[in-house]
Amino acid sequence: MRVRLFAVLLGMVFAGTAAAATPPAPAVPVPYVVGTDYFLIDPPQRSGVDGKIEVTEAFSYGCPACNFAYPYLEKIRKNLPSNAVMTYVPASFKPNEDWPMFQRAYLAAQALGIADKAHSAMFDAIWKDKTLAIMNPDGRTIKNPLPTIEDAAQFYAKFGVKAEDFVATANSFAISTKMKQADAYIRATGVDATPTIIVAGKYRLNYQSAGGDWDKMGALINYLVRKELVEQK
């Protein structure tokens, strides 16, 4: 009996030793690195539209990189999860290239309910058909004078808003306030170049940080949307 008990105890010791020697399961790798692929915004900014995760593009119509990126970001927008939505915040930090005027124009169009349907056409008006061009024909120098809000109003008139009504809205106190709010958001999120993407008011990324590939950028945005959804639970 004593021999049998000793054998049982000895077996338990060896079993425990073997279990202790078993290496822990490897951690699931995190596909993206904070501080490299994307950056934390501290403090996070208020975000969310109709209960959905907000994916915000900081942009300007006067930004050539934004014009180039538009079709790629539009594809990313269309491939966002159903619980995410793309929004836009116009930047103004290049007044010599008419960015404050385009900021005012976008916010006025948004207030009048025509920003979305005019979005692509506005890029074309500046960079394709040149009716609102900021560059001279040489492609190197800035026009003088630059397009005015009255010029932008003539463009938006094609979308069902009278030019004089557009100008009145654009020059209103409400739009001037929205411009200050947009500038404050740009500063608070650390945006220093466009286009830049902000996810849920918490994460900032751009084409370069995402690996210089539009498909990779879309995958990173969707990863951050999923990350935010998990954190909200």
Defining traits:
about 50% helix; disordered N terminus; 5 strands; about 230 residues
Topology:
Layout lengths: L1 H20 L17 E2 L12 E7 L4 H15 L5 E7 L8 H13 L3 H13 L21 H8 L6 H8 L2 H16 L7 E4 L3 E3 L8 H19 L1
Parallel strand pairs: 2-3
Antiparallel strand pairs: 1-5, 2-4, 4-5
Helix pairs in contact: 3-5, 3-6, 3-7, 5-6
Describe the protein's architecture and organization.
The protein is of the alpha+beta class and 233 residues long. Helix 5 (149-156) packs across helix 6 (163-170). The chain has helices at residues 2-21, 64-78, 99-111, 115-127, 149-156, 163-170, 173-188, 214-232, and strands spanning 39-40, 53-59, 84-90, 196-199, 203-205. A hairpin with a 3-residue loop joins strand 4 (196-199) and strand 5. The protein has one domain (39-232): 3-Layer(aba) Sandwich (Glutaredoxin). The chain contains 8 helices and 5 strands; from the N terminus they run αββαβαααααββα. The model is unreliable at 1-21 (pLDDT under 50). Strands 1-5-4-2-3 form a 5-stranded mixed β-sheet, sandwiched between helices.
